[in-house]
Amino acid sequence: MNVDALKLSVYFGESVLNTGRPASEALMACLADHGIVSATLLRGIEGFGANRRIHAQRFPDVSTDLPLLAVAVDDRKRIERALPDVDVAVPRGLVTLEHARLATGADVVRSTFPEGPGRAVKLTVYCSEREHSHRRPAYREVVALLKRSGATGAVVLAGVDGLLYGTGRRARLFARNGNAPMVIISVGPREPLLASLPALPDLLQEPVITLEGIAQVKHDGELLEPLPTLGRSPETADDVWQTIRIYTRRIAQVDGRPLYTELTRRLREYGGAGATTILGEWGFSSDEVPYGDKFGHVGSHRPTYTVYIDRPNRVADLWPLIDEATADHGIVTSLFVPGYRERAGHIENGRLDVAHRVVAAASAESIKEDWLGTATGVLESASPWLTELRDRILNFSRARGVHQPVVRVTLADGERFFLYALEPGPGENFVTLHPHPERYAELVPTDQGRVPPRALIVPRDAIVKMELLVKPPRGTRSLVSLDMASLAPDRHRSHDP
């Protein structure tokens, strides 16, 4: 099999019931009845959804309603036929659909990755814990192959129930019995992951894989490509959602808390739609030796996998917050979600009509062109100095293919900061500078979005140096890019009707 497919993901709580029995049982039975090629039920360790409550496994906040994530993949028609029954099986939760390429058996060798919103790709391999290769667990052999091939990173997620080729891979409810389904997710450049495909049939008896095009935005603090965005058309606002996935270690910390815990708390505090974290069994990032702990033991070196899903404009608004939390650790990827439906009591958001055309039209290149078009369309400045500065920044960005310029300012008194906005005046020889704050929480909410809290009015001669950078220095937060629209002379009047 080598077909265009849909990946169905269902996020819900373990306390959700379906006519008296766990919704998880009803859902897995539904997927089995429809003959889905692969389905895996994963148990999370932390998360929140529409009810805004955080459910966590950690002490002292131990929850009796930990998040569950079911992932199923098959050809488009079979998944679409299953959707009405999935809707009945899980009366409260989040359902998403994503485009993928599905390949099985010998056909995995001839598979190719579809185009995505960025330059990277994602390869997901489905197998079982019991399967072995070369006298080792097959999932470890697959991870070793991915590492040798040059993948940026990989994580192994162990399920508690599932299907593979229609055969149940079920453990006792939330207990391990050696036959748990496993999902191996890897990300990286296209060519290295393509190079790993011919070896998969030698490691797995009947390999099942999905291939997706994604954007790999960050790796251990380094910005690799811009966060994809989708413009602001009404069609986009209604039809498309966006997912951010963060791969890191459990030992990675932010402000003294585990990275995934602090990120979940911040997303909830600032109005994110929902997030779920799964604890992995095995994995690696970059040139590290694959790491993990023995089954049944909770170890600090185990990998974690966090998924945040929201409207694209909301993801863009909260991106600086995510960037802060991942300033030193983690792989961060992004993908558009063309089908999304959330229910929690009387709350219902989104729909599962797959927005093929809107998502297919999205690309990082279109984002860049949209930004440059906006920037070059500003009114001619009343200040020749500001006009020349704007043109130099635009020429620098175009020549280097930069999505947004980074401008670092040094003043005569030694102060140094990244510039958010710049305006002429007051007066002929003065300029108003708006420095970026160091943290997202310092931004001030306004009708036009969150803006920096500080403005400096200085003589132009007080500016000793302005550096133009292709990307932020390693570890720097994303609150560093220049708002090019601020170079328009009538910036404040432009909001008038």
Describe this structure in words.
By secondary structure, this protein is of the alpha+beta class. The chain has 2 domains: 2-362, no CATH class; 365-495, no CATH class. The strands form 6 sheets. Strands 1-6-4-20-23-17-24-15-7 form a 9-stranded antiparallel β-barrel, surrounded by 4 helices. Strands 32-29-28-27-33 form a 5-stranded antiparallel beta sheet, with helices on one face. Strands 2-3 form a two-stranded antiparallel ribbon. α7 (259-269) packs antiparallel against α8.
Based on secondary structure, the structural category is alpha+beta
Helix count, per DSSP?
Answer: 11
According to DSSP, the number of beta strands is 33
What count of domains describes the coordinates? 2
